[in-house]
Amino acid sequence: MSKAIALIYGVVSYFTFLATFLYAIGFVTGILVPKTIDSGVPTSTTQAVIVDLVLMSLFAIQHSVMARQGFKKFWTRIVPKSVERITYVLLASLVLALLCWQWQPIPALVWQVSDPSLASAVLGLSFVGFLLVLLSTFLINHFELFGLHQVVNNFNKQGMPDPKFHTPLFYRMVRHPLYLGFIIAFWAAPTMTIGHLLFAVVTTAYILVAILLEERDLVALFGDEYSRYQKRVPMLLPWRRPM
Fold first, then answer.
1. Residue 94 CA to chain centroid, in angstroms?
2. Could you tell me if 151 and 88 are in contact, meaning their C-beta atoms sit under 8 angstroms apart?
3. Cα(49)–Cα(199) distance, rounded to whole angstroms?
4. Beta bridge partner(s), residue 77
5. Which residue ranges make up each domain of the chain?
6. Cystine design at 90: which of 13, 32, 80, 149 (Cβ 3.0–4.6 Å)?
């Protein structure tokens, strides 16, 4: 019964993540959702900046702290190891949903692409960024990354295989194509407001910090194999040919 409950919990949590991720695409691009990064009743700029920074800080703290190995060792004393990852994903999704819900717009323009064809191309580039994010997750095992694989294996009384280091497709060009996709998606805006710019700047800064923390864990996990990969393949920009 506990394995069945864990499986149901995992499936519900995964679809919560999926719905939140799809909403976040609309939130950033301003497409098909009721609340976007630039919609809502504007408040004072100071209040909006404070609220938005607090929301992004909550996401960054939850996302980074719970991903660290030291926290995982503590956390799995409280929750079963089989649902540790999906719980992390669920909490990240809820914090992201809170950010989308409570985000305060700052509508002053930084730039606006007036040509309709060029604006469509820039918006299309944002969607390309989100597509790169999604494809990158499938290249490294999407369902394991988001915790569903773990609860399914637990239900089937199977253990998780040992992690193996591999570099499929985009990972041969840059070490973090998933993060690169987010940066493209956030910055490719035909209409860039102060609020959107704040979001893009802070999330990009967080991504750079997250990469440093993540790579420290990867070096600890894979040792020299990952260190050689760092020397061979650039972090975000494919500026040199991988060996």
1. 13
2. no
3. 10
4. none
5. 2-232
6. 13
11, 80, 155, 196 from 32: Cα distances, Å: 25, 38, 37, 17
Digit-coded pLDDT (tens) for 198-235? 999 999 999 999 999 999 999 999 999 999 999 999 99
pLDDT digits (tens, 9 = 90+) for 93-128: 999 999 999 999 999 999 999 999 999 999 999 999
Instruction: Report whether 188 contacts 130 (CB < 8 A).
Output: no
Q: How far apart, in whole angstroms, are the C-alpha atoms of residue 31 and residue 131?
A: 15
- Which structure tokens are listed for 13? 């949590």
Tokens of 30: 């301003």
pTM, entire model: 0.93
Task: Answer whether 133's CB lies under 8 Å from 215's CB.
Answer: no
Q: What spatial distance separates the first Cα and last Cα of the chain, rounded to whole Å?
A: 50
12: Cα separation from own chain's centroid: 19
Sign of the C-alpha dihedral computed for residues 111, 115, 120 and 124 taken in this order: negative
Q: Give me the residues paired with residue 191 across strands.
A: 112
Q: CB count, 10 Å around CB of 218?
A: 19
For every residue of 170-193, DSSP letters joined together read GGGT-S-HHHHHHHHHHH--SEEE
Contact 240, 234 (CB under 8 A): yes
Question: Residue for token digits 């919990």?
Answer: 9
